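S.,

Sequence below, as promised.
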Amino acid sequence: MEQKKFDLNSFIGLILLGGIIFWWMSTQEPEIDETKTTNTEIVDASKTTNNANTAVVNETAFENDSIKQIALKNKLGAFAQSAISASQGVSILENEVVKLTIDNKGGQIKEALIKNFKTYDSLPLYMIKDNNASFNINFGTTDNRILNTKDLFFEPTITTNGDNQIVSMRLKVSENQFLEYRYEMMPKKYLVNFSIRSQGLSNVLNSSNPINLDWSLNGYRHEKSLKTENTMYSKLYFKSESEVDDLSPNESEIVNQLDWVAYKQHFFTSNLLSEKPFNNATITSTDLVLNEEIDTVYTKKYQLKTPLELSNGELNYNMKWFYGPSDYNLLSSEQFAGTDLDQTADLGWGIFGFLNRTVFYPVFNFLKGFLSNYGLIIILMTIVVRLIMSPLVYKSYLSSAKMKVIRPELTALNEKYPGKENAMKRQQETMAIQRKAGVSMMSGCIPALLQMPVFFALFKFFPTNLSLRQESFLWANDLSSYDTIFKLPFKIPFYGDHVSLFPILASVAIFFYMKMNQSQQANMQAPTQEGMPDMSKMMKYMIYFSPIMMLFFFNNYASSLSLYYFISNLLTIAIMLVIKNFVIDEDKIHAKIEENKKRPEKKKSKFRERIDSAMKQAQEQQAQQKKK
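The prediction came back faster than expected:
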């Protein structure tokens, strides 16, 4: 076997190869994980009065290297500087009533917390959280780029103006060229001043491209009754051309001279107000609840899309944000004068809203100044309302008593003029008897009609009254929502999956009231004429149908409303019993009617003459038809 010889050339080659490998490894640095080298800076500017505080939290977002600068310059053009020096983080504006968290990315409100209120399940009440809202300006640049502010980073600056806290968010091209969002929060107020302005961007913004503002929000569910909150009291309100209106769900509308939009979620509202009205603005409302068993996070999606106008090549808009309660007492206060935001409290239209504003709210606020138990306030308010309405109850009952006295004469009249052929003559004589006796069918109807506006006004008053929200009384833990004494293991159509006691009590009271009122209504009706429907039979059915209908309807409605109707009907029954047994004397009424008959008949009004003339002509035509 041949012995191997030492190869000097191979040995030198290995030494050289090893040296090259060692040199290559020594010149390479380990790769740095950006996420592990993030610096966090906390700037506390909370030294303001009224326990308010403002804070900034920043995290390095980009490395300032030449390669990235080139990439950002290619992508963002003039606004590349904002990304190069950008930092992820938030700024906080907070006072006694609201807390806003403003994100460096987009310069927009990331969280809006309404303090001193909780959701139905006792959680903090956020209007904005977890990306349910977006505020964006879409614009074009002179270097033919289309950018969105929601994707860009703003640089925050914290200052104060007296007791006011200010956060300035700037999207910079340079130190003297920028787009600015300026937020200014005052102590103890929900309104936050907000302005959008640009400086030195007249040669950067492309005026030939539209500049569009887009503000959208998915409204969180806050209340116990999802159906009531979503279908009845969550709406998009807006003020356009000096008129306040609302938009129905799943609709879109283009409006001009738009002063403000309000995204209402029953008791709470997100508002954007502008001193310079928007034109050609598109507002949209979309119902997000398709199935109440599944869709329980959001109620509606609201959206505003509007073009912004340049002034001398720059943006300049003064606005206000409002994240707070839809409280009529608050929205009708001096700080909201001239805005008409109080109309978003939804007190009803026409006379119903008038009664709520001028009668029921003043009475409620007066009683609230003396009592802290809202159940007792409702009971006392009900007593006040029924006492005010008692003259109408008396008038109606008096008319019923008068009709009862002349009823035998009307019955005799039906016997004297039987058959359809005498219907006109019978009606004429009936009206003559009523007129001579001083009795009018309308005198009984008018008091009942006058009470209807009160009914519908309170139908709006109680479910929208913020003071009643999450206030308990007896077994009801929230007077603004339904009470529950028993949870059903199944759901009854139109009724629900729970049993509420206040609607049951209200329905029982309505039944006894209608039962007692039946005899009064029977007295008010003239004897049934031949060929005419018997109204008394219909009333008998209504006595049972109405309470059942009310029971189903009010089972999912505000317990404060059921409490009011329960007490109201009890008081009405008591008032009717007092009037019947201690006020009305049928003998005196009969004597009065006989006295009225002896008096000469008053001169007929022109309206009465026209009616008598028309009835006479109809009677003559009937007689002619008989002869044929």
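Confidence is low (pLDDT under 50) at residues 29-63.

Coffee later?
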